[in-house]
């Protein structure tokens, strides 16, 4: 048994050392007469003569293929140039290590896709808040006869619309393309229903330049759906009641877009439009949001909101809706549903009118706060000077039937009165 163990150990030692370079031309970088080193520009060379290459025992440069002589490959496990083909970094799950121009290179492993057909091709679509990402497998497309480097949007092949790049997803190498979530951008088509927005586009993928062609170019249709939100619902509205102004970050840093709009429903997804009219006494929902700001860094605080019968914010006929960040119910019913906790603020309001006026102008003063654990931006507190805040305004068009009804009633009253007088005159005669 003892002899068997020695034989096995000797075999292991022999195998461990057999793969490493042990020649003399080129020399080892550690040789006394060489004192070599490795650099990105020149590879590994002797310090005494930079034109003379050497073989290192450590390889710390990015292009590790330049560390080893022809027929040898750097093996990070044994820290030597080995005759064993080794790819570094290791190949992905659908790749294999091959020698390409004496360089250990990861190439597609066709055996991984043996028997695969076009029906097995399934792209990966990632729908992010501001971008859509379509990703396709490089190796599978190559196996099927397609050329993943020849891909572009079907309806727009301009360079700005077709920037694709390689990346690794689920231990597979894919080719990805990003698209803005924006109607009309590079051929995007937007549709919607009562609860979602849909962005659609089509990707063209060409075929390989081979003498035998087995497939036709591919057209890949894809769609991302998004839940309707306070922001996205404004996209499909024809003429939403809204106002957008610039708001600065804390201490005047940066500039962002602050939008205020009004909605018919408590989900803040049905915008009131310019042609609409709102009946007095019904609920409307004021939504304020800041776009393109960092929600991890900032929150939006609405300090106060008030209404006037004119577009003059200093009109003396002023009715407060929010004061000090919270609902002000002395004159009208209002509820602050969200404030100071995110980049959106939500305010519920029972509509009202001013005497003999068919419009209500609502002004809100808001600011961006630092999003910190000790922030007081969601608390009720005394208002600061108005110059600290950014002001925005919208006009709520009211239903003026009440005024027409009043006139109609007055007209009917005179008709009835005249008829009554005529009856009296006839009786007297």
From TrEMBL:
SMART domains linked to this entry: ZP
GO annotation, biological process: neutrophil migration
UniProt subcellular location: Secreted
Alphabetically ordered keywords of this record: Disulfide bond, Glycoprotein, Secreted, Signal
An example Gene Ontology CC term for this record: cell surface
Predominant cellular place of this UniProt entry's protein: secreted
Signal peptide: 1-18
Classification via PROSITE patterns: ZP_1, ZP_2
Annotated ranges, domain ZP: 126-387
Keyword Nucleotidyltransferase: no
Name of the molecule in the record: Thyroid hormone down-regulated protein (Gene 18) S homeolog precursor
Primary gene name: thdl18.S
């Amino acid at each position: 048994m003892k002899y068997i163990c020695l034989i096995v150990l000797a075999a292991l030692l022999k195998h461990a050392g057999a793969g490493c370079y042990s020649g003399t031309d080129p020399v080892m970088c550690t040789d006394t007469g060489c004192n070599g080193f490795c650099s990105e520009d020149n590879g590994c060379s002797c310090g005494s003569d930079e034109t003379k290459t050497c073989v290192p025992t450590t390889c710390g440069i990015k292009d590790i293929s330049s560390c080893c002589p022809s027929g040898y490959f750097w093996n990070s496990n044994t820290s030597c140039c080995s005759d064993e083909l080794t790819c570094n970094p290791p190949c992905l799950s659908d790749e294999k290590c091959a020698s390409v121009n004496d360089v250990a290179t990861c190439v597609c492993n066709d055996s991984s896709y043996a028997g695969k057909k076009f029906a097995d091709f399934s792209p990966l679509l990632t729908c992010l808040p501001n971008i859509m990402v379509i990703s396709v497998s490089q190796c599978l497309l190559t196996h099927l006869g397609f050329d993943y480097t020849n891909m572009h949007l079907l309806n727009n092949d301009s360079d700005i619309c077709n920037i694709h790049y390689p990346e690794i997803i689920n231990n597979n190498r894919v080719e990805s393309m990003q698209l803005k979530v924006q109607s009309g951008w590079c051929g995007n088509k937007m549709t919607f229903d009562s609860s979602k927005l849909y962005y659609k586009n089509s990707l063209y993928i060409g075929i390989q330049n081979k003498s035998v062609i087995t497939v036709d170019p591919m057209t890949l249709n894809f769609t991302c759906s998004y839940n309707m939100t306070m922001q996205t619902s404004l996209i499909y509205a024809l003429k939403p009641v809204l106002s957008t102004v610039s708001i600065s970050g804390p201490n005047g840093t940066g500039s962002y877009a602050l939008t205020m709009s009004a909605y018919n429903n408590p989900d803040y997804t049905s915008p009131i439009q310019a042609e609409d009219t709102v009946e007095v006494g019904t609920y409307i929902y004021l939504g304020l949001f800041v776009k393109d700001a960092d929600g991890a860094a900032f929150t939006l605080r609405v300090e106060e909101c008030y209404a006037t019968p004119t577009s003059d914010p200093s009109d003396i006929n002023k009715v407060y809706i929010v004061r000090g960040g919270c609902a002000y119910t002395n004159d009208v019913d209002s509820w602050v549903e969200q404030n100071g906790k995110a980049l959106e603020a939500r305010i519920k309001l029972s509509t009202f009118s001013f005497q003999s006026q068919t419009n209500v102008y609502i002004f809100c003063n808001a600011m961006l706060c630092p999003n910190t654990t000790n922030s007081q931006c969601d608390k009720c507190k005394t208002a600061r000077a108005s110059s600290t805040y950014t002001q925005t305004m919208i006009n709520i068009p009211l239903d003026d039937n009440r005024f027409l009804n009043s006139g109609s009633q007055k007209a009917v009253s005179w008709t009835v009165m005249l008829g009554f007088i005529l009856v009296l005159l006839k009786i007297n005669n």
